[in-house]
Amino acid sequence: MKSTRRVFIFLISLLLIGTLIGCAELYGSRKNRYASSTVEYLYPKQEVVEVPTIPHLSLPLRVGVAFVPESGGFRGKSRLSEKDKMDLMDRIASEFRKLPFVKDIEIIPSVYLTRGGGFTNLDQIRTMYGIDAMALLSYDQVQHTDEGLLSLSYWTIVGAYLIKGEKNDTNTMVDAAVYDVASRKMLFRAPGTHHIKSSATLVNLSERLRIDSLEGFRAASDDLVVNLQSELERFKVKVKEMPKEYVVEHKPGYTGGGSMGGGFTLLLLGLGGLALWRGRNR
């Protein structure tokens, strides 16, 4: 009797071990990557080099904002719907709307950007929307799922609804590169990053990954907006300090009150006028 019981326990143990090994192989570490590349979009053919020229920035600027198409060489499809992209672009475009030297912002739907379209595609968009500069948004998101052996043992015996076993890492980077379309020159760029670590059961793993993915994009976009503010300030300084690299002019009817150095100039004039008025009164 005891011998039969021992054999039975031994067989059950082998069955459980085999089940665990099988589950570990089936539900082992997984990695999904969702990405788009500004470089692949603008320079699809390496032998063709676009040589940038000196940009002529005619103020106030009309700026377009768009996501470049997803890269064909990466695994996985975009988790971002067109609505998600439009929402993120609107949050980023709101920063450009605050700038006095920007006249208007156009949010460009993804359908107007073709994979590998390059500057030829940008020229078409420039003509269609009447824009001067283009903010190209790209991203790279990696989601890594690691199911530990201990969690799988509980999953096998108890049930996936009760035990959180998966360890999910979601790393997201969103990048904005602003180009003067006519000169092919990149004016400035700003990145945004975010990292999420969470856990979920096998049953709701897909839903958890989808939620983490969208949260990663939103948080990385918020970080991008903060960095964008700093890069815009650096760009205004660069334009004033390097007049041979950037030609700034005003469009007909534009007074220049919103120029990149206009506020500082008006302040100096105001202080000079105040000093002159005080001198005369004395």
Task: Give a written overview of the molecule.
- It is a single chain.
- Strands 1, 3, 4, 5, 6 and 7 form a 6-stranded mixed beta sheet that branches. The protein has a two-stranded parallel sheet with strand order 2-8.
- It has one domain.
- The termini are far apart.
- It is elongated and about 60 Å long.
- It has 282 residues and is α/β, with parallel strands linked by helices.
- The protein contains 7 helices and 8 strands; from the N terminus they run αβαββαβαβαββαβα.
In short:
The chain is α/β, with parallel strands linked by helices. The chain has helices at 2-26, 38-42, 82-97, 118-129, 149-157, 205-241, 262-281; strands at residues 30-36, 56-59, 61-67, 102-107, 133-147, 166-180, 185-200, 247-250. It is built from 7 helices and 8 strands; from the N terminus they run H-E-H-E-E-H-E-H-E-H-E-E-H-E-H.
Secondary structure topology:
Elements: H1 2-26, E1 30-36, H2 38-42, E2 56-59, E3 61-67, H3 82-97, E4 102-107, H4 118-129, E5 133-147, H5 149-157, E6 166-180, E7 185-200, H6 205-241, E8 247-250, H7 262-281
Parallel strand pairs: 2-8, 3-4, 3-5
Antiparallel strand pairs: 1-5, 5-6, 6-7
